[in-house]
Structure to design on (753 residues):
C-alpha cells in the first residue's frame, strides 16, 4: 500500500479521467471527486480504475431523461447504463435538478461517483445519496458514508437523491489517502495516456535548460 | 496582462519573499542553526530551525558528493550537490535518517505529511570553489566575481503542495505564517541561503583552521540563492486563474491607492529616492548574456536616470504626485522602466498597501462551480466582453497555432512542442486559452440563445473546462494572460518572469526564450539577523 497526499489523489484521478477519454473539464471533476471520496474515507482507487475501464460503455443522460428529472416525471424507455460523471455533472450544473429532489435515477453505473461529484461541488449541501447496498450523506462539511467494503463498488444501481438534514456526527475529513500498489500501477497506465513520449527533438529541447552547469 | 509587459515584471514589496521577511521581523521569529553534522569535505547534514510564535519548522539540508559531469540544471537530473526538506517541527534522529534515505533522491524518494517542501540546489561551480579558496587563504573573495554570479548555489526545483507525498497545501493553509502564497517555499529558500554560505565557510575553515576567514557581512548580504527555471513553471499561471487574479488585483489595488494619494510626504519621497538608488545599484550589477535582456537593462538604466532627474519636478505641486510620476513613466519609459516605476512608487507606502498581501491567496474551490443556469447567449456575451483580446488571432494561420503544450512521458513535466514537426499534438494540454475561447464562442453561436449552459455541456462536455474559465474570468478581470500562448513567437520566459517577480526574484537572466536564471533574497537580511534587525525590515 502507498500513502498518498490528497493532491496526488486529485492529480492522478484527473489524469486517469482524461486518459480514459473524459473531456478536460470532466476530468477535473473526477480529480476533485476522488479527493472528496478519499477525504470521506470511501474507496477511490478501485472505483477510479473501474470507471476508467468501463468509461466507453457508460452513456450520458439524454436530454429527454434530463427533462424528466427536472419535471419529477417517471423515467421511461431507457435501459442504458448512465455515466455517473456526466449525470452528476448535470446535477451540479443545473440547480433546478437538485431542487426537484428526491430524484430517482435508474441504471446508474458506479454510483459512488455520484457521491464523489456531488461532494466536490459547493452547490450541494444536505443530500442523502442511496442505492440498495450503500448510502452517503453529502454536504458542505464533507461526506458521511453508511456502508462498508465492497458495498461501494456496485457496478449498476438505481440511485435515490433526497434532501437530508446533516447527521448529528460531524464528518472528520481524512488528510491522507492510501492505495494498493497494483491498483496504482494500473491507474498509472491510464494516466500515462495524457503524456507525450519523448522524441529526439523534444529531448534536445527539454525544458530549455543547459545540459551541464557552466558557471 | 500582455506577455511583453509580464515579461518586464519587477518584484515589489508585495512579493512573497518580502511578505515572509516582514512577518518574520514583526513576530521576531527565532531562527538558528540547530544541528551541524558536516564533514571536512563539506558532506553530511545540517538542520536550521525557524520558530514563528506558534510553531517551529526545520530545514533539513543534505550535502552529498556529485561528479561535475552529473551537475545539470535540468529537471532530468538524477543527483544534486544538496537536497532539502522543510520539516513540520524539529526532526529527531529517526526522521533525519528517513529523510537522508529519500531527500537526495528527490522525485524518486517518498515523503509524508510532516515534509512541507522538497528542494535541491547545485553549486555554482565557478563561484563556490573560488569563495572557499579565498576564505581558506584568509582573504575575501573578489567582490566583482561575487557580484557577477550573485549566489553560491542555485535551486533547480522547489516542490510544495503534496508532490511525491509531501504535505498538501491545505495542511498549512490555515497557519498565519504560511497562509500566503508560496510562504513555505520562500522560507525554505531563505534558510537554504544561510546553509550555502555556512557550508562554504565551513569547508574553508576545515581546510585552513588557523587562517581561514569568514565572508565579510557586505559580501554575505549580496549573495542570494540562484534559481534556474524552465518550462515546468510556465503553465502554473494559466492553470490557476483565480490565484493569478488575486496576485495582480493586489498589485493593481496597491498602485491605485498610491496614485490616489493627494500628496507626497517627505518620508515617502525619501523612501522613493532610496529605493531608486538601490535599484540603480542592482541594475549596474545585473549581468545577462541575453542580447534582448541586455538592451532592456540598458534602457532601464537610462529610464532610472530619467526618473531621478524628473522626480522632483513631477511630484512638486502636483495634485496627485504619484499619479503624475506613474503617468510620466507610462508616456516616456520602456516597459522595463514602467514596471520598475510601479515597484518604486509602491516601496515607500508600506502602511498604505501591505495589508493587500493578505488578499493574495485564493480559495479556488469556491470559484470552481459552473453556473449551468446561465443561457448560451449570456455566456457568449460574457466572452465577447471579456475576451475581445482573443479575437486578435487567426488560428487558421500556422503562426497563431504553431505550438502545443504537453506533458512529457519521460519527466512528467510541461513542455512546448511544434505542431507541424513534433508528434503528440493530439495530447495537447488545455492551455491554448485564446484559441479555445474563440472556438467555444463559435460553438455557442450554433445553439438556441435561451438554452441553458447545463444542457449545452450535457451534449458538449468537451467545452466544460473552457466554460469554467470564461465564467471565472467574468468575475476576475485579471484571470487571463491576454496573449496567444501557442503563437510561434510566444516567449515562455515572459510567463516565468511574471511569476518569479511575484516571488520576489531579481537578476533575471534569460538563457534562451524558454528558461532563465534568477536570484532570490540577494541583498536581503538573513533569517538569523531578523531578531536584531527587525526595525529595518519593511
Amino acid at each position: 500500500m502507498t500513502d498518498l497526499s490528497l493532491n496526488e489523489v486529485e492529480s492522478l484521478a484527473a489524469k486517469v479521467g482524461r486518459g480514459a477519454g473524459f473531456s478536460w473539464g470532466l476530468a477535473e471533476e473526477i480529480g476533485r471527486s476522488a479527493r472528496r471520496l478519499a477525504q470521506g474515507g470511501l474507496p477511490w482507487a478501485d472505483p477510479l480504475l473501474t470507471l476508467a475501464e468501463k468509461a466507453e460503455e457508460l452513456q450520458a443522460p439524454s436530454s429527454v431523461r434530463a427533462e424528466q428529472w427536472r419535471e419529477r416525471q417517471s423515467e421511461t424507455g431507457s435501459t442504458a447504463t448512465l455515466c455517473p460523471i456526466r449525470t452528476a455533472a448535470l446535477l451540479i450544473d443545473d440547480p433546478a435538478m437538485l431542487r426537484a429532489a428526491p430524484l430517482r435515477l435508474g441504471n446508474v453505473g458506479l454510483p459512488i461517483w455520484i457521491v464523489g461529484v456531488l461532494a466536490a461541488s459547493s452547490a450541494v449541501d444536505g443530500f442523502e445519496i442511496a442505492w440498495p447496498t450503500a448510502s452517503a450523506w453529502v454536504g458542505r462539511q464533507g461526506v458521511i458514508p453508511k456502508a462498508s467494503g465492497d458495498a461501494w463498488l456496485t457496478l449498476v444501481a438505481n440511485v435515490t437523491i433526497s434532501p437530508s438534514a446533516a447527521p448529528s456526527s460531524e464528518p472528520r475529513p481524512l488528510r491522507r489517502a492510501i492505495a494498493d500498489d497494483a491498483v496504482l500501477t494500473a491507474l498509472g497506465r491510464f494516466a500515462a495516456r495524457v503524456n507525450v513520449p519523448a522524441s529526439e527533438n523534444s529531448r534536445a529541447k527539454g525544458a530549455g535548460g543547459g545540459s551541464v552547469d557552466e558557471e | 496582462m500582455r506577455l511583453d509587459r509580464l515579461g518586464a515584471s519587477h518584484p515589489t514589496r508585495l512579493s512573497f519573499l518580502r511578505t515572509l521577511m516582514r512577518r518574520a521581523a514583526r513576530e521576531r521569529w527565532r531562527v538558528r542553526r540547530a544541528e551541524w553534522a558536516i564533514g571536512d569535505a563539506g558532506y553530511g547534514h545540517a538542520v536550521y530551525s525557524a520558530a514563528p510564535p506558534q510553531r517551529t519548522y526545520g530545514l533539513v539540508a543534505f550535502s552529498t558528493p556529485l561528479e561535475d559531469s552529473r551537475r545539470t540544471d535540468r529537471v532530468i537530473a538524477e543527483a544534486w550537490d544538496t537536497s532539502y526538506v522543510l520539516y513540520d517541527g524539529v526532526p529527531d534522529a529517526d526522521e533525519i535518517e528517513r529523510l537522508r534515505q529519500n531527500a537526495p533522491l528527490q522525485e524518486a524518494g517518498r515523503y509524508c505529511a510532516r515534509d512541507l517542501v522538497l528542494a535541491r540546489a547545485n553549486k555554482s561551480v565557478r563561484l563556490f570553489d573560488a569563495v572557499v579558496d579565498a576564505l581558506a587563504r584568509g582573504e575575501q573573495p573578489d567582490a566583482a566575481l561575487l557580484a557577477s554570479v550573485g549566489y553560491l548555489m542555485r535551486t533547480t526545483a522547489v516542490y510544495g503542495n503534496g508532490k511525491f507525498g509531501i504535505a498538501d497545501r491545505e495542511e498549512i493553509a490555515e497557519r498565519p505564517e504560511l497562509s500566503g502564497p508560496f510562504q513555505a517555499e520562500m522560507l525554505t529558500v531563505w534558510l537554504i541561503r544561510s546553509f550555502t554560505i555556512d557550508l562554504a565557510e565551513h569547508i574553508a575553515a576545515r581546510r585552513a583552521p588557523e587562517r581561514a576567514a569568514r565572508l565579510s557581512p557586505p559580501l554575505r548580504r549580496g549573495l542570494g540563492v540562484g534559481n534556474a527555471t524552465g518550462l515546468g513553471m510556465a503553465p502554473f499561471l494559466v492553470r490557476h486563474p483565480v490565484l493569478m487574479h488575486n496576485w495582480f488585483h493586489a498589485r493593481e489595488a496597491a498602485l491605485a491607492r498610491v496614485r490616489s494619494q493627494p500628496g507626497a510626504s517627505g518620508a515617502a519621497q525619501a523612501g522613493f529616492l532610496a529605493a531608486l538608488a538601490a535599484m540603480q545599484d542592482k541594475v549596474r550589477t545585473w549581468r545577462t548574456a541575453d542580447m534582448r535582456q541586455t538592451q532592456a537593462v540598458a534602457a532601464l538604466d537610462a529610464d532610472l536616470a530619467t526618473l531621478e532627474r524628473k522626480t522632483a519636478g513631477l511630484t512638486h505641486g502636483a495634485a496627485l504626485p504619484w499619479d503624475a510620476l506613474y503617468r510620466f513613466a507610462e508616456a516616456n519609459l520602456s516597459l522595463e522602466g514602467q514596471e520598475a516605476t510601479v515597484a518604486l512608487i509602491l516601496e515607500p507606502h508600506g502602511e498604505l498597501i501591505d495589508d493587500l498581501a493578505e488578499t493574495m491567496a485564493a480559495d479556488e474551490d469556491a470559484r470552481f462551480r459552473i453556473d449551468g443556469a446561465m443561457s448560451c447567449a449570456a455566456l457568449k456575451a460574457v466572452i465577447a466582453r471579456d475576451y475581445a483580446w482573443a479575437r486578435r488571432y487567426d488560428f487558421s494561420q500556422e503562426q497563431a497555432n504553431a505550438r502545443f503544450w504537453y506533458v512529457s512521458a519521460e519527466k512528467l513535466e510541461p513542455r512546448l512542442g511544434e505542431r507541424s514537426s513534433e508528434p503528440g499534438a493530439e495530447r495537447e494540454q488545455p492551455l491554448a486559452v485564446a484559441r479555445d475561447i474563440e472556438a467555444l464562442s463559435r460553438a455557442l453561436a450554433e445553439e438556441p440563445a435561451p438554452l441553458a449552459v447545463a444542457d449545452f455541456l450535457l451534449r458538449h462536455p468537451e467545452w466544460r473546462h473552457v466554460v469554467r474559465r470564461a465564467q471565472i474570468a467574468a468575475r476576475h478581470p485579471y484571470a487571463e494572460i491576454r496573449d496567444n500562448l501557442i503563437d510561434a513567437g510566444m516567449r515562455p520566459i515572459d510567463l516565468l518572469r511574471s511569476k518569479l517577480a511575484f516571488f520576489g526574484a531579481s537578476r533575471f537572466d534569460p538563457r534562451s526564450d524558454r528558461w532563465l536564471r534568477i536570484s532570490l533574497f540577494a541583498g536581503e537580511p538573513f533569517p538569523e539577523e531578523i531578531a536584531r534587525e527587525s526595525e529595518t525590515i519593511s
In short: Chain A has one domain: 2-169+177-195. Chain A touches chain B through 55 residues (CB under 8 Å). The CA atoms of residues 13 and 31 of chain A lie 5 Å apart.
